[in-house]
Design brief:
The structure holds 2 protein chains of 2 kinds. By secondary structure, chain A is α+β, with helices and mostly antiparallel strands. Chain A is about 65% helix and about 5% strand. In chain A, strands 4-3-6-7 form a 4-stranded antiparallel sheet. In chain A, strands 1-2 form a two-stranded antiparallel ribbon. Chain A has a two-stranded antiparallel ribbon with strand order 5-8. Chain B is built from 14 helices and 18 strands. In chain B, strands 16-15-14-9-13-12-11-17-18 form a 9-stranded mixed sheet. In chain B, strands 5-4-3-6-7-8 form a 6-stranded parallel sheet, with helices on both faces. The longest helix of chain B is centred in the C-terminal third of the chain and has 20 residues, at about 375-395. The N and C termini of chain B lie far apart (about 60 Å). Classes of the chains: A alpha+beta, B alpha/beta.
Chain lengths: ~725, ~425
């Protein structure tokens, strides 16, 4: 798109549309200011005057003020006039607004006073002070707010008086005004003056939100001395005061506030509640027929406090089967019992039983401590992760991932063996832990850990990419304990270097059992994909091709597909010539989803000379690249030409026409017209040709004319014929 | 042991529910309307919610809130009679009662001291002002995007939520989706090398904005409160074409369009990837071809482009460093310069950009007073970036921006476009 075509337009009067084109707009107004002023002076419709005001906001000067000012008294145009008068940086605007503020009443006065507040005109204090005593409380309140924005001693004095006004609306506005003045004092470093105003509002007869805001200010203005005031709010039974204390503590940060929060947290004690059976989501999918989307992760993430409540709906992960009633299928366990169930779309599933912290306020304080990040707070969170009731432990375990250190490792390893949400959170935190000595602590624990703890540690070592765990993982891949064996193989997927990749490849050739094969295949996929030596890894995989079974060859093809890159592509080209149908099936499937355009020649070759059973799939993969991936335009059109030459069926030719429509070119137009001769494609070809022609520049007029003659001759549907005739007519002009 | 559990009948569920404690120990599944109030957490743990402006998007959002057992929606406000009644039906059906109270004027809803939080899903014309008024009334706010109409509003939004200590979450739910978060993590942690370019998809940089249309007979106030609908927007006569809300006065009527509509998502993600949640680009360029560029102080270039995207769904973003790149979109899929970037990680592929996680993040923060992923500071800066891009498009020239003063440097016209007067009697 050219820059000049990027237009921002304003619909005016329902019939006139102004297109303010960027290229012609620049620093100059679309029309001279004098013309805009003339519109305002004239009897033009109000819509025209409104738009003129809007333009004057950007391009107007003092010259426009005399025509804008009278509009302040017009209920329909006052808001438009103020758009300009608030924006034009000329004292004439202030003078006009002050004058109007002294004369107008009701809403119009409120508007003008609001604009004075926005412009912070110190010369308006006198008129605003007068209007502060207005009988109309809305006008008085507006004056108070404006005075607060302007600030200064005179304004503050007036606002102090207004704090005793009989109207709560005015008192509220006065409090807002004083808080603005106090904030400004605090920003300027005059904490004493700020504190005085905050304290004044805290003790005034004003709405509670103003007093809460004043409390925050009063804490901040007092600096370190404000901690006692903060703690006082934390002790309050008023949730709004507790809330402002917690958010203000995060603003203050530092060891002093952390210590104050720790002290306020109180003793952490396990509640005497029996732990509920642990809920574990094993797998879940949502959809219908053959269209499903895996929602396991979505549901796992939705488990809160050991319970899940969720509606079977498209909000889980979009709509995998539009227009069809879908269902949610879940396999889960509660304690040692496993269940599976199906839930119809629109119904709600509710699983598990949650606990709750004995003291919910403790959870909030732990969260605040985590945000503050001081060591005193971290130690408290580690303690809570061990000793608190289940629900508070869950909070602490999650927080440790963000800010824990080596001391959190044994706590998290222990929690990670408990199953369910707590275990999942602990395992994730174990991977996230960033403090010093964490890796060493994990390696040390691995030396002696057994059973479930060893599994957790192997998993953590793998996900933390701990290369030093390699010897342990290599040994454990032959463990008698299948859970340890599986964890070790998965860890190897994460950490095995190229030199020892053969160990996993050998295991793929000779797995312990089917489950072992799947685990090794997944680990190899990860290993080959993550290592920088992609080509060497692909070569190692292809080296065992001659002795690999069909199952292993298919696995290799899929691994190469995940890896991507030139060597993998060469491997796939070789695999595509395999004698086994199943292998060729896998190759064409993988190539059909290849994410870069370099697969195009391989697919073209397969479409031309490959196994006839998979030629159509290869051709569709080739067309997909032309349609979706990043290819120079000339190459894209050349690919369309190639595809049309090979395609035997109208279905694939239709896909090519779609590409041509998406990327309109003169050559594409000619290719489309050529398809008019195919009876099954005549209608689509004609429509495609017309669509392309409508988008081509005037320089292609001759090609368009010729093409439209052919379209017209083909006698397409009436609507297409008419468009073709219009185009033909246009090219004659 | 694997047991197939059959549907339990509505009647048997009711028996169970009536005989059970507040939290059910048995796994069960029911129609939400049957679960009703039984599905809620104890009253002391509930967040009492009010919905403001519940149209199409708002209905989806409200559904996400209603799913959460610790939320009780008690009121709906909408200037349109049809919509407030429709939303009330949805809420009442969910709880199996008739308790949801409706208001034409949202200020009555804000006056209720028993309401803790509000969902604001009005048109963009109202987003910022309603959020600010809600915060000043002591409510926490989940507000649909775009949350502001201009730069000044963005700053006021952040300042208000800082001052009031209220929790704010912009409806940019992609911040809480794993594939976007993972792409950001790659950029932030240097896994792509030195980050040099972040790409966003504005999905339309041209737009027609609302202005003035011929007067039509104004419906009764109870049916459509036109004055309240206009709210802070400059006055114009009633015309039903403006009533869609979604596009009315987006970006203040002069600038807006796709850069703001989609940029509030994808520019926001670019900001996040560049560790720029507290700043914005310092240079903005006029459009070139099908793209617009801006540059951050750290040298990273932000590119808004219409074409050149991999087929990864709507709202794509791409982050490029000198050692690699990542691209992702609403399909939930990731494209990487090398699969090695995954480092073996399995990133949950959640397509369809659900807001459920984002809503939950908000609710958790309502309880802990923490900052949600798309808090007011984050939203303020990502929206300022969008507004500044739009101003550069509008003026058609390079602009420089001071990210500390939040002013354009040596460009008075650009600075005039930072804010716009509100119609009387509204003010921040």
């Amino acid at each position: 798109m050219e820059p000049r075509k990027i237009a921002i337009s304003i619909v005016l009067c329902g019939v006139v549309t102004f297109a303010l084109r960027v290229g012609t707009f620049g620093q100059q107004p679309p029309v001279p200011e004098s013309d805009l002023v003339a519109i305002l002076k004239s009897d033009a419709p109000k819509g025209d005057k409104a738009l003129a005001c809007k333009k004057l906001a950007v391009f107007g000067t003092a010259q426009a003020v005399p025509v804008l000012a009278p509009l302040l008294a017009d209920p329909e145009l006052a808001s438009w006039a103020r758009i300009a008068l608030e924006a034009i940086p000329d004292p004439a605007c202030d003078a006009a607004l002050r004058e109007a503020a002294g004369k107008l009443d009701g809403r119009l006065a409120v508007g003008v006073i609001n604009s004075i507040g926005v412009r912070r005109d110190p010369q308006a204090i006198e008129v605003l002070t007068q209007r502060l005593g207005d009988n109309d409380v809305d006008v008085a309140a507006a004056a108070a707010a404006a005075l607060g924005r302007i600030g200064g001693e005179k304004a503050i004095a007036a606002l102090r008086s207004a704090l005793k006004h009989t109207s709560p609306i005015v008192r509220n506005a006065a409090a807002e005004g004083l808080l603005s003045c106090a904030d400004r004092y605090l920003g300027e470093g005059n904490a004493a003056a700020a504190q005085q105003l905050y304290d004044l509002v805290r003790s005034a007869d004003v709405p509670k939100p103003r007093r809460v805001e004043a409390t925050r200010g009063a804490i901040l203005a007092r600096g370190v001395d404000g901690l006692s005031l903060l703690v006082e709010q934390l002790k309050s039974n008023d949730k709004d005061l507790v809330a402002i204390a917690l958010s203000t503590a995060r603003e203050i940060k530092g060891p002093a506030v952390a210590q104050a929060l720790v002290a306020e947290l109180g003793p952490i004690a396990a509640a005497p509640q029996q732990r509920p059976p642990v809920l574990v989501i094993k797998s879940a999918r949502y959809g219908a027929g053959d269209r499903w989307v895996d929602v396991t992760e979505a549901l796992r993430a939705a488990v809160r406090n050991n319970s899940l409540q969720v509606e079977a709906s498209n909000s889980l992960a979009g709509d995998p089967a539009p227009g069809v009633v879908k269902e949610l299928q879940i396999v889960y366990s509660l304690g040692d019992q496993e269940f599976s169930l199906r839930v119809k779309e629109g119904e709600m599933i509710r699983l598990g039983e949650g606990g709750k912290p004995a003291d919910p306020r403790q959870a909030a304080i732990l969260e605040a401590l985590a945000d503050i990040g001081d060591p005193a707070g971290i130690a408290t969170i580690v303690k809570a992760a061990q000793e608190a009731d289940w629900a508070l432990r869950l909070v602490a375990v999650r927080l440790l991932g963000r800010l824990g250190d080596a001391s959190a490792v044994p706590v998290l390893v222990s929690a990670a063996t408990e199953g369910g949400e707590l275990a999942q959170a602990a395992a994730e935190s174990l991977v996230q832990l960033a403090g010093q000595g964490v890796d060493e602590a994990i390696l040390k624990s691995l030396q002696s850990a057994q059973g479930p703890q060893r599994v957790v540690l192997l998993q953590a070592a793998g996900e933390r990419l701990l290369g030093a765990a390699l010897p342990t993982a290599l040994a454990d891949m032959n463990s008698d304990d299948p859970t340890v064996r599986t964890a070790a193989i998965r860890a190897l997927g994460m950490i095995v270097p190229l030199e020892q990749l053969d160990v996993l490849i050998a295991r793929l050739l000779k797995p312990v059992d089917d489950q072992d094969f799947q685990t090794v295949r997944e680990a190899l996929t990860i290993a080959c994909s993550r290592m920088p030596e992609l080509d060497a890894a692909a070569a190692k995989l292809m080296a065992v091709w001659p002795k690999a079974s069909t199952r292993v060859r298919i696995a290799i093809v899929e691994i190469l597909g995940t890896m991507g890159g030139q060597a993998a592509l060469r491997g796939l080209a070789q695999a595509a010539r395999d004698s086994e149908d199943e292998v060729q099936d896998a190759v064409t499937r993988v190539l059909g989803e290849w994410m870069s355009a370099d697969a195009a020649p391989v697919l073209l070759d397969l479409a031309r000379t490959g196994n006839p059973r998979y030629r159509i799939r290869a051709l569709r993969g080739y067309i997909r690249i032309a349609r979706q991936l990043d290819v120079p335009l000339n190459d894209r059109i050349a690919m369309c030409r190639n595809a049309l030459a090979i395609a035997q069926r109208p279905e694939e030719k239709r896909l090519v026409l779609e590409v041509l429509r998406r990327y309109p070119t003169a050559e594409g137009l000619q290719l489309s017209v050529a398809q008019l001769a195919v009876p099954e494609l005549k209608a689509e070809a004609a429509e495609t040709a017309v669509q392309i022609a409508e988008k081509l520049p005037a320089s292609d007029a001759a090609i368009v004319a010729k093409a439209m003659d052919q379209v017209i001759q083909a006698a397409p549907a009436a609507e297409i014929l008419q468009r073709a005739q219009v185009l033909r007519q246009r090219t004659r002009q | 042991m694997n047991r197939q559990r059959n549907h339990i009948s509505r009647r048997s569920f009711l028996r169970t529910a009536l005989g059970a404690s507040a939290t059910l120990a048995v796994p069960t599944f029911v129609s939400p309307r049957v679960l009703g109030m039984q599905g809620l957490a104890p009253a002391s743990e509930r967040i009492r919610l009010g919905g403001i402006g519940i149209g199409n998007r708002g209905t989806y959002d409200l559904g996400c809130f209603l799913q959460e057992p610790d939320v009780e929606c008690v009121a709906i406000a909408d200037v349109k009679l049809f919509r407030r009644e429709q939303a009330k039906r949805m809420v009442d059906q969910h709880y199996g009662n008739n308790n949801c109270v409706t208001y034409r004027d949202f200020r009555e809803l804000l006056d209720r001291p028993d309401i803790d939080a509000v969902l604001i899903a009005t048109g963009p014309n109202w987003h910022c002002l309603a959020s600010v008024l809600a915060a000043k009334a002591g409510k926490d706010v989940y507000c649909e995007k775009p949350v502001t109409k201009n730069i000044t509003q963005s700053l006021i939004l952040a300042e208000t939520f800082r001052r009031t200590g209220r929790v704010f979450q912009a409806g940019t739910q992609r911040r809480n989706l794993p594939h976007f978060a993972f792409a950001v993590e790659l950029a932030q942690k240097g896994r792509l090398g030195r980050l040099h370019t972040v790409y966003a998809h504005p999905a339309g940089m041209s737009t027609s904005m609302s202005g003035w249309a011929p007067a039509e007979p104004e419906p009764p106030k109870e049916e459509v409160d036109w004055d309240l609908y206009l709210g802070p927007a400059a006055w114009r006569p009633f015309n039903k074409r403006w009533l869609d809300g979604f596009n009315f006065e987006k970006g203040g009527g002069l600038v807006g369009g796709g850069v703001l509509e989609w940029g509030s998502h994808c520019v926001d993600l670019c900001q996040w990837a560049n560790n720029a949640d507290n700043t914005v680009p310092v240079e903005y360029y006029p459009p070139e071809g099908n793209q617009v560029k801006a540059k951050y102080a750290n040298g990273v270039t932000l590119v808004l482009r219409e074409e050149g995207w991999l087929p990864l769904g709507s709202c794509p973003v791409r982050f490029e460093g000198d050692r690699g790149w990542v691209e992702t979109g609403d399909s939930g899929k990731l494209a990487l310069s090398s699969p090695a970037l995954l480092a073996g990680r399995k990133v949950a592929e959640i397509g369809g950009y659900p807001a459920t996680f984002h809503v939950r993040d908000f609710l958790d923060c309502v309880k802990t007073r923490g900052k949600p992923k798309a808090n007011a500071d984050v939203a303020c800066h990502s929206h300022i970036a969008c507004h500044a891009v739009n101003i550069a498009i509008f003026l058609g020239r390079k602009l420089r921006f001071d990210p500390l003063k939040y002013e354009f440097i040596d460009d008075e016209q650009a600075n005039r476009l930072r804010g716009e007067a509100l119609r009387e009697p509204w003010r921040f």
